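Residues pack. Consider this:
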Amino acid sequence: MDRRRVVGIALGALSGVAYGTGPLFAKSVYHAGLDWIALLAWRFFFATVISWLWLFAQPRARAELRLLDRRTTGRLMFTGATFVLTASVYYAAIQRIPTSLEALLMYAYPAVVAVLSMRLGYPFRGRLAWGSLAVVLIGAILTIGGIEAGVDQLGVAIGALSPLTYAIYIILAAWMAGERPGQTADMRSKGKGAEVSPPVAGAVMMTGTWLTMFVIAAAAREPLVPWGVRWRRGRASSASDCSRPRSPFRRSTRRWRGSGRRRRR
């Protein structure tokens, strides 16, 4: 097995670990009062900063960035923007249903990718690939018995969209990398790799992801910090107090207190 393939498998495994542990941190954010919009806005902001720092640390990537044309830049940013849909349905579902249940629903995406790749990309080849897919699906099916009754039905419906949106994003990202039906990006470039190097593609795509999420957060007017949530709740409670009708007993009590103060003076 050549070095490029080993590195690709290792990076794929690392991305799976990173993506799988994300919901564990999301729950603590939800407990602080923020919702999935604020969570993703901050997540994509830090990811964008790290992506550009990684790009500028490599002279070859900086040179390639200067040669990037507008059409390719637009395609990359559009691909990054589509990831917002995947992340939104995933973390919106986690806010309503247990993380384990959403992970179970999400594990259907390899089968969706396999089906889409047969027509739109490089299909699975060999018994090992299809055997790995079978193991993943069987493992997910065996966990169905652990689902608790009474879960949020809307959360389940949102979570069921996760594998479909993620599979579409994977196919679209593969196309942006140069993959076509029956050919990987490496095959088409004769060993030179993707049409756009990963540092450049990652930074530009993540920029599109963050900008899209920022627009959504601004349109939703959701607070992005915990004290913003408390401030909004405080305003809501004070507004409700002002709009609440005052009882005659309360008004008479205030008059009595006022008359007592005037007598003391």
Residues 3-31 form the longest helix (29 residues). The chain has a mean pLDDT of 76.
